[in-house]
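Consortium newsletter contribution from the modelling node. Members have asked for a concrete example of what our holo predictions look like. Here is one, prepared for the uridine-diphosphate-N-acetylglucosamine complex that several groups have been discussing at recent meetings.
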Amino acid sequence: MASYLVTGGAGFIGSHLSEELRRRGHAVRVLDSLVTGKMRNLEHIPGVEFMQGDVADLDACRRAVEGMDYVLHQAAIPSVPKSVKDPVTSNRANIDGSLNMLVAARDAGVKRLVYAGSSSAYGDTPTLPKREDMPTRPLSPYALQKLVAEQYCQMFTDLYGFETVTIRYFNVFGPRQDPGSPYSGVISLFATALLAGRRPTIYGDGEQTRDFTYVVNVVDGVLRACEAPAAAGHVINVATGGRISLNELLRVMNETVGTDLQPIYQDARVGDVRDSQADIAKAEGVLGYAPRVSLEDGLRATLAWCREEYTAQKV
Ligand code: UD1
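And here is the predicted structure:
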């Protein structure tokens, strides 16, 4: 049994990591400010130690890493539009907070820190699929902040010999993803619209594509990154290696729900990336990773969860 600190553990991806770690019998401590995370996401997971605190507070980070073997650093303000509106606040969470965690984890003798990177680092470069050694081109403060923090991670490995791994996420979806804002992940928004019998919105012509990754696959990749010997100091994509357009995604979701709701098309979002698809060869080679759950199965599980949530809220 090992001990894991999950920052942002009350959030969508963090709560899935915590759940799987507990299922495997590990000790889990969560550090979460509860700004976007919710206690509700942890309620069903027995034995998680919870600490409320902000990663932008170095003392909170130091208290949280005490006695931990691994840190899974997920805490962030994970929104492109929010970062465009208020870059200072998201900088504080995404860069200052990450640097604090790195310093605290290094000083506490943590074995390895695995960082939640983002495919947004690639920006709108035309080459597909995206390989980790391609040039980056961040298009938003959020993308830049995620990239700076991953470079901090690599620097901590080179400069101080502190082991870090960055996993670049690609459009992660699944149960517990919050559909509460117009800037939520598109699958959570499509799901709530279809279940409520509303027409979903598509920004642009709907032919933009994404490598939508079911959260179980991400959890598997991140947990492999804690232990894979050759991963230290590396940046690694974890996704499916495929891509699907929003029009096609909506068609599949309509079919799964049993609806036929046509989208309302609106102007494309400023700063929107056209196509995104991961090359996952490095994850396969270094982590022994392969996607376990297909897009279709992930969508079915997500829609089943949303249906339950939706029914519970109506009661
Ligand atoms: C981007 C980043 C991702 C990051 C996330 C954080 C890329 C490739 N991905 O995701 O790494 O973690 O921001 O916010 O840069 N859309 C609709 N209708 C809706 C909502 C969205 O058509 O109701 C469209 C968007 O315009 C976009 C696509 O769906 O084209 C996906 O949007 P979203 O789920 O918000 O994720 P990204 O912006 O791709």
